[in-house]
Amino acid sequence: MVRAFGLGAMLFGVWLLLSGHYTPLLLGFGVGSSILVVMIAMRMDVVDHEGVPLYLVPRVLAYIPWLLLEILRANISVARIILHPALPISPIMVHFQASQKTDVGRAIYANSITLTPGTITTGVEGSELEIHALTWADIDGREEDEMDRRVTRLEQGI
Amino acid sequence: MAIVLDILSWAAIAGGLFFMVVGAIGVLRMPDVYTRLHAAGMTDTMGAGLILIGLTFQAGPTLVAVRLMLVWAFLLFTNPISTHALARAALSGGVEPFRVDMEGDKP
Amino acid sequence: MFVAAAAGIILSMVLALLRALLGPTVYDRVLALNMFGTKTVLLIAVLGFLSGRPDFLDLAIAYALINFIGTIAVLKLFEVGDLGRASDPTGGSA
Fold it and tell me: Which of A16, A43, B15, C49 has its C-alpha lying 20 to 30 A from C39's C-alpha?
């Protein structure tokens, strides 16, 4: 029930930000459509700890600035490779062991890896990730280990 | 103050355009689908992000700025998923990853 | 100045279209189309500022979501051969 209310509040918040018209009639429409979406979501049985991970919201907000900085650094190195006349790439496929316990944690880790240019998650099986990297240096483990630690911390809330 | 914001926003937009064009060049130069995905990811994250941040500075503290950041949030949430789907579809479609032969550099 | 930004975005859109025309596999074309869609979102946003009507941003948000769903739908059609069925639960890698 808490999750359903949280989902509804978030949906209505987005509605408020997007609408910009605050008359009683339109606010009523907003409340109505938020409730309708929550009802559909409950009928689809997706309002659980995985579909609406409310407990993760503050921790993800704290994780995003670090991720953006990492994305910026990876972008600069990939841009340098592309602009290099000889195109010094050595694509490689590697397998990684993710240390997250839950599927949500693994999804966050896999998506973070894909978001940083230079590495793409091409497959997930259990806790093993298959990663395609642009150069050997992109996958030497330092950034990925740090990311793995941070996502695990995020998942467990330490 | 306004002039500082202007300079910041145009610097961000110019940086975004740079990453975007470099990413497009990369998509043209790279040898196969998987390496092209890396270049495309670059335009999606940094190119789009910097341009939208620049536009946010232009918009000032209004609802328009919030909407610009929402556009970026949508892009950041959806792009890794389509990249991953594309890589998996290409793998199961039987596209062989391009490899460079190097002397004893791999484990 | 917004004109310069729009021109830069259109330049990279042309480069993406070039990749879509060159191929060679169908996945390259889908990748180019996905990139083209992202750039369209940005172009709509910049055009909104250019014409002084930031309401265009709603179109940009809608386009971003449609672009994502369209890409996924096309890829699923290639991978499964049917939009109505779920893919192989074991991962489907051949």
Answer: A16
